[in-house]
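hey
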């Protein structure tokens, strides 16, 4: 069985490390490309549903594993459409979202405008949405100084400090960041998992609000898994049988 793994997350990398040379690990091109994998690595987009469909046919892909980020909804939709048309099974890692605990102050926002409205009264937000805030550096109000953590190195400006870093992040490290940047509100995607969860714990213990970007609705997959380990087991079982 020749599988195409759609990646870009820690879950995807964990699966990729278990794949041999007959399989392909696909990355959009953001971040660092692993150099220690046995499987083939493909970097770049496919060109929409039609491009992905051609790739599945040309490469004789027999299984697609969607381990993209929970907010990469367009890629997940493209995978569903292409697999349906190619009659190729689609598996997906559907990581459970974080759930609020006692003491959390979470404020939902559906889009960028909603986020900006919810942080208007604060002075030092910590952005953990990825690269999106980089396109809005010219919009920072005079009353705010932003700290933006993402995978992209960027010079920032007088009102924005950019931290290029990849999780996992520890609670101790997050406390140090909150102290140094005087964070008074956090903006986050509800990504789930443990790699970036520490920021929520630190916000909770300090009584700080978190603006949580609403998760997009993702398409149905033929098989859905909670974590990478379950995918690896299912894949090995499929190959053995």
């Amino acid at each position: 069985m020749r599988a195409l793994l759609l990646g870009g997350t820690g879950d995807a990398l964990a699966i990729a490390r278990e794949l041999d040379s007959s399989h392909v690990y696909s990355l959009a091109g953001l971040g660092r490309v692993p150099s220690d994998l046995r499987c083939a690595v493909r970097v770049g987009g496919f060109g929409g549903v039609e491009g992905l469909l051609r790739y599945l046919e040309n490469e004789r892909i027999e299984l697609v594993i969607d381990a993209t980020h929970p907010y990469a909804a367009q890629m997940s939709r493209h995978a569903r459409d292409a697999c349906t048309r190619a009659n190729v099974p689609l598996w997906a890692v559907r990581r459970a979202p974080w759930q609020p605990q006692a003491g959390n102050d979470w404020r939902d926002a559906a889009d960028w405008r909603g986020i900006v409205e919810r942080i208007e009264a604060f002075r030092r937000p910590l952005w953990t949405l990825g690269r999106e805030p980089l396109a809005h550096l010219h919009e920072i109000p005079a009353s705010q100084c932003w700290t933006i953590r993402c995978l992209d190195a960027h010079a920032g400006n007088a009102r924005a400090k950019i931290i290029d870093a990849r999780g996992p992040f520890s609670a101790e490290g997050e406390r140090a960041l909150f102290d140094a940047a005087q964070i008074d509100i956090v903006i986050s995607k509800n990504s789930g998992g443990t790699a970036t969860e520490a920021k929520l714990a630190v916000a909770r213990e300090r009584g700080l609000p978190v603006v949580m970007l609403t998760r997009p609705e993702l398409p149905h997959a033929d098989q859905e898994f909670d974590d990478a380990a379950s995918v690896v087991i299912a894949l090995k079982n499929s190959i053995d049988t």
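Residues 73-86 form the longest helix (14 residues). The domain at 3-95+217-240 is CATH 3.40.50.720 (Rossmann fold).
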